[in-house]
Write a structure and sequence with these properties.
The chain is of the alpha/beta class. The protein has one domain: Maf protein (Alpha-Beta Complex), CATH 3.90.950. The chain is 32% helix and 23% strand. Strands 1, 2, 3, 4, 5, 6 and 7 form a 7-stranded mixed beta sheet that branches. A hairpin with a 5-residue loop joins β5 and β6. α1 packs across α5. The protein is globular and about 50 Å long. The structure holds inosinic acid (IMP). Inosinic acid binds next to β3 and α3.
Length: 206
């Protein structure tokens, strides 16, 4: 812990879109009480060999904590589409192939969903923190939605242009501002809960 900051963490994600969201959400809850370092470029990519979101989030957080000596925070996110038996699930980033772009994955999802009436889906995120003393915390966030018939909006990333949260007003996540998305999103819910756990652990200031 340094200076005024009460929590100092390194972000384990190598995905700049996810890192920006995690930063936004944690800073909105913990404000000046947190210092977040970006993932050091010289730390090798962590293989996501787990079968669950929690295992993969933990692998990333443990590896970054070990590599840096700092506390680390990671997340892993899956998209489960009911009509596809829960696919793409934990393999959401590789749905259209190993080096698939966001657009490739969205195009494959829309192809698989052609003519399908039941379009229910949910995003789930596990947020995971490992502190320098070895303490581990995790929190889960889910959001229910439907897969739209076509992509809409330029915001967000990944499957956001085709995900319409049921608690929203019919817009996709990509049509919302970042704050509107975080308010409803899987990642917003998981990291607000994680921030609560981190804040509860902070020593009282005297
Ligand atoms: P990851 O395994 O947590 O990196 O996420 C897997 C994939 O899910 C990402 O590559 C994105 O395609 C997608 N994804 C994760 N979070 C979001 C989100 O908030 N909105 C849309 N797609 C997402």
């Amino acid at each position: 812990m340094t200076g005024e900051a009460e929590v100092e963490l390194v972000l384990a994600t190598a995905n700049p879109d996810k890192a920006a969201e995690v930063r936004d959400i944690l800073c909105s809850v913990l404000g000046a009480g947190i210092v977040l370092h970006g993932r050091p470029a010289d730390v090798p990519e962590v293989a996501e060999t787990g079968d669950t979101l929690e295992e993969n989030a933990r692998l990333k957080a443990v590896a970054l904590a070990a590599a840096t000596g700092l506390g680390a925070v990671a997340d892993d996110t899956g998209l489960a589409v009911d009509a596809l038996g829960g696919a793409p699930g934990v393999y959401a980033s590789r749905y259209a192939g190993e080096h698939a772009t966001y657009a490739d994955n969205v195009a494959k999802l829309l192809r698989e969903m052609e003519g399908v009436g039941e379009r229910g889906a949910r995003f789930s995120t596990v947020a995971y923190a490992v502190l320098p003393d070895g303490t581990e915390f995790s929190a889960v966030g889910d959001v229910e939605g439907v897969i739209s018939l076509a992509p809409r909006g330029d915001g967000g990333f990944g499957y956001d242009p085709v995900f319409v949260p049921v608690e929203g007003d019919g817009r996709t996540f990509a049509e919302m501002s970042p704050a509107e998305k975080h308010d409803l999103s899987h990642r917003g819910r998981a990291f607000r809960a994680l921030a609560g756990l981190l804040a509860a652990r902070r020593p009282e200031r005297r």
